[in-house]
Amino acid sequence: MQLDTLKLGCERDERWLFSDLDWQIRSGELWRIEGPNGSGKTTLLRILSGQMADYTGTLLWQGEPLARCREAFMASMLYIGHRPGIKKALTALENLDWYQAMSAFEKRRGVRRDACFQALAEVGLAGFEETPVENLSAGQQRRVALARLALGHQRLWILDEPFTAIDRAGVRQLEGWMMAHCRAGGSVVVTSHHDSGELLPSSGVLKNLRFDGQGGVHVDC
Ligand SMILES: Nc1ncnc2c1ncn2[C@@H]1O[C@H](COP(=O)(O)OP(=O)(O)OP(=O)(O)O)[C@@H](O)[C@H]1O
Questions:
Q1: How many CA atoms within 13 Å lie on the side-chain side of 77?
Q2: Using an 8 Å Cβ cutoff, are 9 and 19 in contact?
Q3: Best of 14, 34, 43 to mutate for ligand 1, by most ligand atoms within 8 A of CB?
Q4: pLDDT digit string (tens) for 3-17?
Q5: Which residues form the ABC transporter domain (predicted)?
Q6: What's 133's DSSP letter?
Q7: Which of 22, 30, 102, 121 is deepest in the core (most CB within 10 A)?
Q8: CATH architecture group of domain 2-87+154-219
């Protein structure tokens, strides 16, 4: 798996958030994106995940310009934004089932529902499957969104502030999933203001990309 940025840049309100960014994301790498508020982390993730076309430079997926292999890229990538991105009027199960149906991974309804039940159990929501999301706590709502990771199809995870509202045990579990995903040949790009403690730094998969807030970006080699 490889995703490359070549001379990537993005300007907002006559200010370059970043420019000339050459960066390679490879199998087995977990990239933590750091930087002050407003420095451009979310913007970079939205560009990387194919949601924003307003940038300079080039993105390559498996060596091909993204524009030429967009469908294959979108099928291989899972983006979870800093908002949970779930429908509050639907239940936890309906949200996940809807997501899976849209992803076209599994068309058989019964198999899909079993996988959704399993994924919700893995994020600690057993017994809450039929609860409307609007009646769940902030952390539980975030867990519904994160349950998509447990459905486990995409090789590249792009996660914007996934730890928001998650309790300490949930943070450890999510870090464990990210490490396991990388060790199995996947890749993760994650922004977080949360201090990860020792787990990720000692994992051997962690790399850092740091925004300095002045338009400079520093990439671990
Ligand atoms: N749609 C937009 N139009 C104009 N400016 C925008 C837009 N979206 C973001 N910006 C600006 O781009 C800059 C970078 O925003 P971004 O959300 O990428 O920062 P961030 O590093 O993720 O911040 P935080 O740590 O607060 O989440 C900010 O100054 C923001 O105001």
A1: 26
A2: yes
A3: 43
A4: 999 999 999 999 999
A5: 1-221
A6: G
A7: 30
A8: 3-Layer(aba) Sandwich (3.40)
Q: Is 210 strand, coil or helix?
A: strand
Q: How far is CA 204 from the centre of its chain?
A: 20
> Where are the chain's structural domains?
2-87+154-219
Chain segment 106-127, per-residue pLDDT in tens: 667 777 889 999 999 999 999 9
Q: What pTM, to 2 d.p., does this model score?
A: 0.94
At which residue do the structure tokens 């420095």 appear? Answer: 39
DSSP label at residue 203? S
Q: What is the CA(135)–ligand 1 centre distance, in A?
A: 30
Q: Which of 15, 33, 42, 47 to mutate to test the pocket of ligand 1 (most atoms within 8 A of CB)?
A: 42
Residues with CB under 6 A from ligand 1: 12-13, 17, 35, 37-43
